[in-house]
Amino acid sequence: MSKQKSNPQIAAFTLPVSESKSTDTSKLLKKYLFHWPLFILCAVVALIAAFFYIQKTNPVYPILATLEFKSPVSSEGSVTNKNGVDQQLDPIKTPVIVENEIEVMQSKKLMYQVVNDLQLWVSYTHKKTGKSIELYKNSPIDYQFVKANGSIDAKGEKLLITIKNPGTFTLVDDVNGDKDYKFGTTIKSDFGTWLLQPTAYIDSYIGEQIAIKVQDPDLVSDSYQANVKVVLENKDAPFVNLSTSDQIPARGKDILNSLMALYQKDALIDKGKEAQSTLNFITMRLDSIKKGLNVAEGNIEQYKSNQGMTDIISQAQGFRDIKQANIKAQNDVTIQLKIVEGLEKWANSPQNTEKLPATSAYLQDPSLMGLYDKLAALQLQRQQLLATTPETNPLFDPINKQIAILQTAFREKIRTIKSALLSTQGQMKNFDSGIQTSLKKIPDQDRQYTSMKREQESKERIYTFLLEKKEQVALRYASSVSDSEVVDDAHAGKAKWPKPIVIYPLALILGLAAAAGIIYGRESLNEKIMHRKQIEDAVTVPVLGELSYQESSNPIVVTQGRGKFAIGEQFRVLRTNLFHLHGNNDSGRVTLFTSSISGEGKSFVSSNLAVTLAYAQRKTIILEMDLRKPKISGVFDLSPDHAGISDFLSEKITDINKLIQPSGITGLDVLGCGPILSNPSELLEKDTLDLLITKLKESYDDILIDSPPIHLVTDSLIIARVVDASLYMVRQGYTHKDELEFINEINDSNRLPKYSLVFNGIKKENFSYSYGYSYGYGNGYGNAYYNSYSEASKENFGDKVKSFFKRF
């Protein structure tokens, strides 16, 4: 988006073509279509290069092979067999982790062995019809190292020989001269001692040159290793695909077949080594565990003997049963004592007639029971008599005597029984204490026995397990086979490169992209302003108008009426825009013309705009106020020695009429610079400048001031105090992009009134850079618009050729 501010004074005269801007995509397309010859040239060059590339490039063929894993397969990080110990002690039965096997197949070790087995570190090339053909397995000679010194260059050592006959060859040496050798003769070189042997194809290459390239096997194996891909397409299926590519299908097939064969061979060898190592380990462990098992069993036997144990569990149960029986007996004795104590309390009571306690059911002594029953019967008889007879009746005397006698006997019996029960209770407590002591020893005995038994059983289980595993591993080792099987031997497909159907479109795209890149890079590296959009994107100052570049020997390109040049109409548009810029001010308008540096066209624009204003019947004067490097007098063929502005400012001449010169164009006068003084800035700061402009406003409609470049001197900023509007020149292909930042600084400081830009010097051939903003240059509406007002000059053949080459 443009950064240009909206200005109500300029909005009314925005250029017609600018109002109908196309989209950014359309502008970009026009920009690149202008250089269509460059695109065609780059596309043709790219297609020609693609043609020669296809002709000179040897085709590359894809080589494929498939390997199947027959044993249990496990993806990385999982194990098919849940018993980890089984997996470790049975390497033959261990599940194959495919990801690990893929890494093995892609290892440097296997590829290095393949390179040496197939002698891929040496190659033979024969030139035929201008094309180098590699002779794999068809070479007429066989290179053999007698002794290598390990100093092969990283790029390889090259030998060139000419086969003279089946027995001799010539070693081409540009340094020491060619020399003939017999096949089988040892030859010393910087990289080692070697010899050549003829093969069955020697007769077909008599008189031919063969190029031999010897490379470091390490580097060769690295190259082939990087080119071989091993992929597990489906983790649920045990199939692995091997692929590579090679210009020689036979060599690619040999590489994959040899790689698979070496992998299977090494896998069997590794499996055998692991199995034998496992058997040795199991045997060693069996011997060690057997000794430990004997020791553990002896310790158990000795412990049982010392403790008098047969079965600790049965003994513990017996002690527990005895303790329970003793506890029950103690409880019975305690109950008897409670009963006896109750009876003893009754017997010792003073009232002999008290009712007996009802405890006869719990008495175990028969004599005591007899006394109890008699007492109970007498007490019953006494209670029945009390129901009908007073207690003082003599009938109670014999009954009371009998009760007293029986109570005495009852008390004596109770003392005897209580003494016996207390003795029994003490014996039971002593017995219980012994049983309790025996029971307390049992947990410690059990702990020690369990520990020894656990150790013995653990060693026994390990011993049994290792015996079984030894037999399993031995049986599998005797009948072990490879875990993998070749499903598809290596086979070559159709050439995958070069493919014309891919290369030609790609070359065309690259050619067009190169042309676009050239244009973009050329524009990006160009530090000069080339189109209006660059200005609008960078500054906030509005662009008042655009002026095309015009080649002419006369600096005044504006003519009255229908002129020769279209630029005349552009100045008329600028005149109209200037009218709107000044607003309602119709007379005494003061306009300043300045620029960043010299050469941007401020004198050209100010003088031609002055002529345009004069043609519009406006009395105009142009002031040559570049007091250091004046140009206006020369534009109108006036004498530079005539008195001028410097004389008035220095107050040497006070009559302005003596300083003004007619330009030769009706209505246009010129006030020249006058003598060049050493202090122009100080002169411009004087009030005489204000006086000069005030007097000129009384006589002229427009006063145009041609001032020095603002980025070089401060004169223009000093003059700005007396002007109404300021026009700043920017020239296509001349003004540096860095000046745009300076233009913004001037605008931010508000030092120039009604600050606007004029885009000057736009060339027709640079239409592609204008993005459609300008008038009268390029094809389309611009020419049609201005051809109706001016006589367009006809281009000759040379101009057309020059214009065409500018499109590159």
Automatic annotation (TrEMBL):
Gene3D superfamilies: P-loop containing nucleotide triphosphate hydrolases. One of its GO terms (cellular component) is plasma membrane. The chain crosses the membrane at residues 32-54. It is an enzyme of class 2 (transferase). InterPro entries: Bact_polysacc_biosynth/exp, GNVR, P-loop_NTPase, Wzc-like_C. Keywords: ATP-binding, Membrane, Nucleotide-binding, Transferase, Transmembrane, Transmembrane helix. It comes from the Bacteria. Its EC number is 2.7.10.2. Residues 448-523 form the Tyrosine-protein kinase G-rich domain. Pfam families: GNVR. GO terms for molecular function: ATP binding; non-membrane spanning protein tyrosine kinase activity. This is Polysaccharide biosynthesis tyrosine autokinase.
